[in-house]
Amino acid sequence: QVQLVESGGGLVQAGGSLRLSCAASGRTFSSYAMGWFRQAPGKEREFVAAISWSGGRTYYADSVKGRFTISRDNAKNTVYLQMNSLKPEDTAVYYCAAKLFVGSYYYTTNIYEYDYWGQGTQVTVSS
Q1: Are the C-beta atoms of 86 and 69 separated by less than 8 Å?
Q2: pLDDT digit string (tens) for 31-80?
Q3: Are 97 and 118 in contact (CB under 8 A)?
Q4: Which residues are paired to 80 by β-bridges?
């Protein structure tokens, strides 16, 4: 079992920045790829960013490319999502997710491939 806890959400004005954190505990000795997803009211959960176990490979949704940066610190079992130049359309609940037992450079954008999910953190961007 892996437990994921997100933090760092909040209310920010358009153009501002936030950094989300996702702390993993439990079976963290296994290699795992990580992803960030978000869900706005009335919409389906969508992919935001993903990172491989090694951190050497990352991938972003077109809507956040150039504004968001995903990173990880395996010594701290923590993944981050730095969000800059935030827009009102970024408003959503943000979730981190983990896929266990992967190769060092594996990542996925497929929501159904992830094994564990956090409880989510709210990000609200005002115009």
Answers
A1: no
A2: 899 999 999 999 999 999 999 999 899 999 999 999 999 999 999 999 99
A3: yes
A4: 21, 71
What does DSSP say about strands 121-126 and 92-100: parallel, antiparallel, or unpaired? antiparallel
pLDDT averaged over every residue in the chain: 95
Residue with tokens 């806890």: 5
DSSP class of residue 94 equals E
Give the whole-angstrom CA distance, residue 114 versus residue 21: 18
Q: What pLDDT is recorded for position 29?
A: 63
3-state secondary structure of 53: coil
- Beta-carbon contacts of 4 under 8 Å, excluding residues fewer than 6 positions away, are 22, 23, 24, 96, 97, 98, 116, 117, 118, 119
3-state DSSP assignment of residue 120: coil
Instruction: Please tell me what DSSP assigns to residue 63.
Output: T
CA distances from 72 to 11, 12, 54, 102 (A): 24, 23, 9, 16
On whether the CB atoms of residues 59 and 109 are closer than 8 A, the answer is yes
